[in-house]
Design goal:
Length: 147
């Protein structure tokens, strides 16, 4: 891929990660305001949900920063890392759609807000796992160049 494409993919992924974190922060503030954080933390699996809501956006931010750095420095990468950037871009687009739908649902106080983020979150998490595998494989099989 061209460096400009890496910069675009990195920027989009970084921005979507920041948006995810913003939605999580909004949810936390809303929970504190409504005094429901206590019941949320005592629900079975709540810590797993919170870990999911924090780790995935942070991965988006980290991957976005990495891809932007690769594009900015015009570093040559192998096909596995290029494919991981494309998969991350698709994941970012699905994540952005999830954010928009969930946030609009939360503002409208819809009943199926959690269902929307779960249904769209499943493919995002699967794609992020694919990105992690591709990045690790791409870095492992990267040829070292001597200067």
């Amino acid at each position: 891929m061209k460096p400009k494409t890496f910069k675009i993919a990195g920027s989009i992924s970084f921005f979507v990660g920041i948006l995810f974190l913003g939605v999580v922060l909004y949810t936390i503030l809303q929970a504190v305001i409504n005094d429901t954080i206590y019941s949320l933390m005592n629900a079975p699996g709540a810590l797993l949900d919170w870990g999911f809501l924090v780790v995935v956006p942070l991965l988006f931010v980290l991957f976005g920063a990495y891809y932007f750095w690769v594009g900015h420095k015009k570093i040559k990468v192998n096909k596995l890392i290029s494919i991981s950037a494309m998969v991350q871009l698709v994941s970012s687009i699905i994540g952005a759609i999830s954010i928009v739908m969930t946030f609009s649902c939360m503002l409208g106080h819809g009943e199926f807000c959690g269902l929307i983020i779960n249904l769209l979150g499943i493919p995002v998490v699967i794609l992020v796992l694919v990105v992690i595998v591709l990045l690790i494989s791409g870095m492992f099989f990267r040829k070292r160049r001597s200067k």
